[in-house]
Design brief:
Layout lengths: L7 H6 L9 E2 L22 E5 L2 H12 L7 E5 L6 H12 L13 E4 L7 E6 L14 H4 L3 E6 L12 E7 L26 E8 L5 H10 L3
Parallel strand pairs: 3-6, 3-7, 5-6
Antiparallel strand pairs: 1-4, 2-8, 4-5, 7-8
Helix pairs in contact: 2-3
């Protein structure tokens, strides 16, 4: 499927809803990022949470959504299976956007319109991109000001998209620590992701996340 074509499966899934379906980011005019990584960011102390199960990951993301606004950039960091897409699903629920959030690996980016008059959610998967320069092939510059932009695998690729950002690192221990009461791997045919404990580290960088905004962020996450 080309980058500029809407996934028909996504279109059909939400045809009964009045708002627009999630759409794919197309190929825009070539633009430069608004900043470079050499500009020293303003950073804060990290916030760390333990997330016993997938439901907790989604709940944390939903809570985080309450302090986000159009123009915010989030970089999701973590290995395969760490819970990046699970986190984005919770974020989408908190923002009140059109659902059907899945990993956009093969189409690179999807735009989920708001159903409540808030910012869109732009969900990007940079796993297959070799450098920050390849992000210029997407129309992120055209949507940044009206959307919350989430970039999976964004480290060393997406920092230049905005002056400020949240870096959210999800760590899943090797083998995955089990949530209380979960079956051991040998007691179940398949160990589901929703019983694996994760650690979330939130790093707020740039002038958007001043002391007041960081305090609101910590409060939203229950810290």
């Amino acid at each position: 499927m080309g980058r500029g074509r809407l996934d028909p499966q996504l279109r059909d899934r939400h045809a009964h809803l009045p708002a627009r379906s999630p759409r794919l980011c197309g190929r825009p005019r070539r633009r430069r990022c608004r900043r470079t990584r050499r500009d020293p960011p303003v950073s804060s102390a990290d916030l760390t949470l333990t997330l016993p199960a997938a439901a907790d990951t989604q709940a944390a993301a939903k809570a985080l959504a309450s302090v986000l606004r159009a123009g915010d950039l989030l970089l999701l960091i973590g290995e395969l299976g760490a819970g990046k897409t699970t986190f984005t699903q919770g974020l989408g629920e908190g923002l009140g956007v059109r659902g059907g959030i899945i990993s956009p690996t093969f189409v690179l980016a999807r735009v989920h319109p708001s159903l409540v008059g808030g910012p869109e959610l732009v969900h990007v998967d940079a796993y297959r991109l070799g450098s920050a320069g390849e992000l210029e092939d997407l129309d992120l510059a055209d949507t940044m000001d009206r959307a919350v932009t989430v970039v999976e695998w964004g480290r060393d690729r997406a920092e230049g998209l905005a002056d400020s950002r949240l870096e959210l690192e999800l760590i899943r221990p090797v083998g995955g620590a089990l949530a209380p009461g979960a079956p051991a791997p040998w007691e179940s045919e398949e160990l589901e992701d929703d019983v694996v404990e994760r650690t979330l580290t939130v790093r707020a960088i740039g002038p958007r996340w001043d002391a007041e905004a960081r305090a609101a962020l910590a409060a939203a996450l229950g810290l």
